[in-house]
Amino acid sequence: MSKNINLFSIAPMMDWTDRHDRRFLRLITRRAMLYSEMVPTGAIIYGDRDRYLTFDPAEHPVALQVGGAEPGDLAIAARAAQEFGYDEINLNVGCPSTRVQKGRFGACLMAEPALVASCVEAMSAACDLPVTVKTRIGIDDRDSFEELVAFVAQVSAAGCTSFTIHARKAWLSGLSPKENREIPPLRYDVVYALKKTFPSLEITVNGGVQSLDQAHDHLLHVDGVMMGRTAYKDPYILADVDRRFFEEDRAPRTRREIVEAFVPYVDAQLRQGVPLKSMTRHMMGLFNGQPGARAWRRYLGEQALDRAADTAVLFGALAAQEEAKDRLLAA
């Protein structure tokens, strides 16, 4: 297996993979590539750039995902990504939401490979970072393998050597973003065939990856695996990533050790006025599948809402989980 930093990655997810979530996930895996939420170019150019782009240095390796379709705007975003210290900039050509389509970016760009190529060329010229593309296997009725190959060929000729492929096509109308993650069938065979067609490109598969065993099997055919909602809802699944995929021999942190290691960060954010709930909402699934998981979620969900809540809530939640676990095991 290759040892590149994109060997195993966590997908960019709107409203989920913010800087607090990424800082939390980094306590579970040191090596998985982390991605930001998609940031529209307009937010970078006209908005509060620090708010959208600042991240904790401990998050490395970390990539900025951007949404846009104007080469000049994307060049500005690429320069900003480099200035802020990201390890990669990724162009979203996969989101099917109506709101994103109105901005003329996301999955609808698969119909305009020449424009995507121009965007990639502009981004590559504006920074020294790897410029990557995350896309689908097709859109609407434009989902033949030949069309996907033509898209990748044109975009790679513009300088993109790394593609993350969500192994489902997207319907641009008639399905919600959630339905587009579930209803179109997964076609891993298409992604595998794409890798065979472009052996020199880095091809990462995304979509429906629910276990590290599945990830291992995918890596027999492609260069990288991107895990999405499974990693968010059950973050401790990532505890064995570094050993399995990056050959690290250190023991993973326990769940309690992860919480304790997160405390200094939470304290620092609280001092800056960040509400506790903005951080604890990403921790809800830490004990997923374990005795006392419900008590953990309930305690965090209730206690973190208090505006005066501090890190004592984290220790209270640990105590609630332990107490519930002991009751369940004694029953």
Task: Give a quick rundown of the structure.
This protein has 331 residues and is an alpha/beta fold. Helix content is 44%, strand content 13%. The N and C termini lie far apart (46 Å).
- H/E element sequence: EHEHHEHEHHEHEHHEHEHHHHHH
Number of helices: 16
Strand content: 5-15%
| Percent helix | 40-55%
**Globular, elongated, flat, extended or rod-shaped: what is the shape?**
globular
Low-confidence region ranges:
none
* Rg over CA atoms: 20 Å
* Mean pLDDT score: 95
Largest sheet: 8 strands, parallel, barrel
The assigned structural class equals alpha/beta
Distance between the termini: 46 Å
Number of strands: 8
Strand order of the largest sheet: 1-2-3-4-5-6-7-8
What does this protein look like?
With 331 residues, the protein is an alpha/beta fold. It is built from 16 helices and eight strands. The chain has an eight-stranded parallel barrel, surrounded by five helices. Strand 5, helix 7 and strand 6 form a beta-alpha-beta unit. Helix 4 packs parallel to helix 6 and helix 6 packs parallel to helix 7.
SSE layout:
Blueprint: E1 8-10, H1 19-25, E2 33-40, H2 41-46, H3 49-53, E3 62-67, H4 71-84, E4 88-93, H5 98-102, H6 113-126, E5 131-136, H7 145-157, E6 162-166, H8 177-180, H9 188-197, E7 202-206, H10 212-218, E8 224-227, H11 229-233, H12 241-246, H13 255-271, H14 277-280, H15 293-303, H16 312-330
Parallel strand pairs: 1-2, 1-8, 2-3, 3-4, 4-5, 5-6, 6-7, 7-8
Helix pairs in contact: 4-6, 6-7, 15-16
